[in-house]
Amino acid sequence: DDEDAIRLLKCTDKPVSVVEHSFSPAVMAYVLEHNFATDDLVDLISEYQQYDTDIQALIKQQVNEHIESVSIEQNTQALEFIRVYCDKEAVLDYLQKNIADYADLITEDTELFDYDETLQLVNLGLDDEDAIRLLKCTDKPVSVVEHSFLPAVMAYVLEHNFATDDLADLISKYQQYDADIQALIKKQVNEHIESVSIEQNTQALEFIRAYCDKEAVLDYLQKNIADYADLITEDTELFDYDEALKLITKPIDDNSAIRLLKCTDKPVSVVEHSFSPAVMAHVLENKFDTDDLADLISKYQQYDADIQALIKKQVNEHIESVSIEQNAQALEFIRVYCDKEAVLDYLQKNIADYADLITKDTDVIET
C-alpha cells in the first residue's frame, strides 16, 4: 500500500524514476517531491496533461527547480512548457545558454517566434549570428533605440526591420555612430522622409537638408510648411534663400510664403519666379529687385491694377535704375507714370541714350 511504499522510499536518497515505474498517485507525488529524477523531465512535460492537478503542480515545481536539465533540442513542447510555467528570467537565462537549440526551433517553425522574448535575448548579448538568425524570423519593425544591439545586429535591423519611430533619435545621435551605421541611417531617412518630424526640431531640418534628395526635401517641406515656417521665423539663421524661393513657387499658401520672405532682407525677383498675386505684391512692396524693372515695364499691361500701382511706385522710387538704352517702351512709361521733374533729371543724366532713341525714331520726340 502507499504507506509501506513511502516508508521504503524514505530509506534512499537516490533519484527514482516515476516514468519507468507505475506508482499510485500518492507514491508518485512523494517521489516527485523527495526522490525526483531529472531524466524524467522530458516525459513528464510531454505527458503533463494526463496527470491530476496535484501531480501537475509538482511537475511545474521540479521543472522550475531543474530547468537547466530540460532539453529543447527539437522539442517544441518543452519550449512551450517552460514559457508558460517557468519564471521568465530563468527562462531567458536558460534560452541564452541553449541558444543554438532555441534558434533551430524558431527558424524551423516561425510560429514559435516570440517578438518580446527574442528582443530580450538579443539584449542579453547573443553573438551576432544567433541574434540575426532570430530576427530573420519576423517582419515586424524593431527599435534600435530602445535596445542595446551590437553594431552588426543594429546594422541588420536598420536594413531589414527598420522602425520609423526611431528616426528622431537616430538623427539626433547620428554623429555617435560609425560610418556604416551612418550610411544606413541616411538611407532610411531618405526612404522614410515623410515620417521625419521637424516640429520644433532644428536638427532634423539640418539633417534632411544635408543628406536627403533635394527634390524630396522640397516636397517634404511643402507638406510640412507650417512647422518649417515656425522654425525659420524663430531662428532666421536657418533661412535658406534659394530653398525658400523654390518652396514659394511650388507653391505654398500665401501666408506661409510671406512669413518666409519676411526672414530675408535680400531683394527677390518677381520676374524669375512664379508668385501668386498676393506674394508678388508683398515682394514688390518689401523686397523689390531693381533688376526686374525692364521686364515689369514691358509686361505692365498684363498685371492687375494693384500690381500695376506697385510697379509705378517702384519705377518712381528707382527711376535711376531704369534703362532707356534702345528701349522706347521704358521712355514712354516714365513719361506717363513718373514725376515730370524726376523724368527730366533722369533724361539729362541719360541724354546719350535719349538722343539715340529720338534720332532713330522721331515719333518718340516730345517737344
Can you lay out the helices and strands and say which pair or pack?
Layout: H1 2-9, H2 25-34, H3 41-46, H4 53-65, H5 76-85, H6 88-97, H7 99-108, H8 115-125, H9 128-135, H10 151-160, H11 167-172, H12 179-191, H13 202-211, H14 214-223, H15 225-234, H16 241-248, H17 254-261, H18 277-286, H19 293-298, H20 305-317, H21 328-337, H22 340-349, H23 351-360
Helix pairs in contact: 1-2, 2-4, 6-7, 6-8, 8-9, 9-10, 10-12, 14-15, 15-17, 16-17, 17-18, 18-20, 22-23
Please state the average pLDDT score.
96
Helix-strand pattern: HHHHHHHHHHHHHHHHHHHHHHH
Proportion of beta-strand residues: under 5%
Overall number of strands: 0
CA-based shape? rod-shaped
Number of helices: 23
Largest sheet: none
Structural class: mainly alpha
Distance between the terminal alpha carbons, to the nearest Å?
142 Å
Unreliable stretches covering 5 or more consecutive residues: none
Radius of gyration: 41 Å
| Estimated helix fraction | 55-70%
Report what the structure shows.
With 367 residues, this protein is mainly alpha-helical. It contains 23 helices and no strands. The longest helix has 13 residues, at 53-65.
Characteristic terms for this protein:
mainly alpha, 60% helix, 367 residues
Structure, briefly:
This protein has about 375 residues and is an all-alpha fold. It has 23 helices and no strands.
